[in-house]
């Protein structure tokens, strides 16, 4: 019996996996991982914060200095109505105010 030959993925092919639990380094926020096929045939791996990836899939790519903010401050609530774009500095200031009120 002849062996079936697998079709080779073209360069630029993206394979998305996840979401996976993030590390302590990112506060345990969920992430997606991506494998991207390179022109030389190798695969490059990268990851993205789940909330940012979900927001960008609905609203378009955000600049690097813009964060995705959770309106209710619950990092596990990634519903689209709970996410909004916010400049990084403003998001950090919001988090600092929230943390000092909690003490």
Ranges where pLDDT stays below 50 over 5 or more residues in a row are none
How many helical stretches? 2
User: What average pLDDT do the residues reach?
Assistant: 88
Instruction: Tell me the series of helices and strands, N- to C-terminal.
Output: EEEHEEH
Note the quaternary state here: single chain
- What is the level-2 CATH architecture name? Alpha-Beta Complex
Query: Which structural class do you get from the secondary structure elements?
Result: alpha+beta
Helix content: 10-25%
Top-tier CATH class: Alpha Beta
| Named CATH topology | Homing Intron 3 (I-Ppo) Encoded Endonuclease, Chain A
Q: What count of structural domains? A: 1
Separation, N- and C-terminal Cα atoms: 70 Å
The count of strands amounts to: 5
Describe the largest sheet.
3 strands, antiparallel
Q: What's the overall geometry? A: elongated
Pick out its properties.
single chain; 103 residues; alpha+beta; Homing Intron 3 (I-Ppo) Encoded Endonuclease, Chain A; three-stranded antiparallel beta sheet; 2 helices; elongated
What's the arrangement of secondary structure elements?
Layout: E1 14-20, E2 31-37, E3 43-49, H1 50-59, E4 66-70, E5 83-87, H2 88-102
Antiparallel strand pairs: 1-2, 2-3, 4-5
Short description:
The chain is α+β, with helices and mostly antiparallel strands and 103 residues long. Helices cover 24% and strands 30% of the residues. The protein has a three-stranded antiparallel sheet. Strands 4-5 form a two-stranded antiparallel ribbon.
Can you walk me through this structure?
With 103 residues, the chain is of the alpha+beta class. It has one domain (14-102): Homing Intron 3 (I-Ppo) Encoded Endonuclease, Chain A (Alpha-Beta Complex). Helices cover 24% and strands 30% of the residues. It has two helices and five strands; from the N terminus they run βββαββα. It has a three-stranded antiparallel β-sheet with strand order 1-2-3. Strand 2 and strand 3 form a beta hairpin. It is elongated and about 70 Å long. It starts with 13 loop residues before the first strand and ends with a helix.
């Amino acid at each position: 019996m002849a062996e079936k030959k697998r079709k080779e993925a073209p360069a630029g092919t993206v394979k998305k996996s996840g979401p996976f639990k993030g590390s302590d380094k990112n506060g345990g926020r969920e992430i997606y991982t991506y494998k991207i096929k390179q022109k030389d045939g190798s695969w490059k791996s990268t990851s993205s914060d789940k909330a940012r990836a979900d927001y960008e899939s609905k609203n378009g790519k955000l600049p690097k200095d813009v964060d995705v903010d959770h309106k209710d401050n619950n990092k596990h609530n990634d519903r689209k109505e709970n996410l909004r774009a916010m400049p990084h500095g403003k998001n950090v200031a919001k988090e600092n105010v929230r943390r000092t009120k909690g003490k």
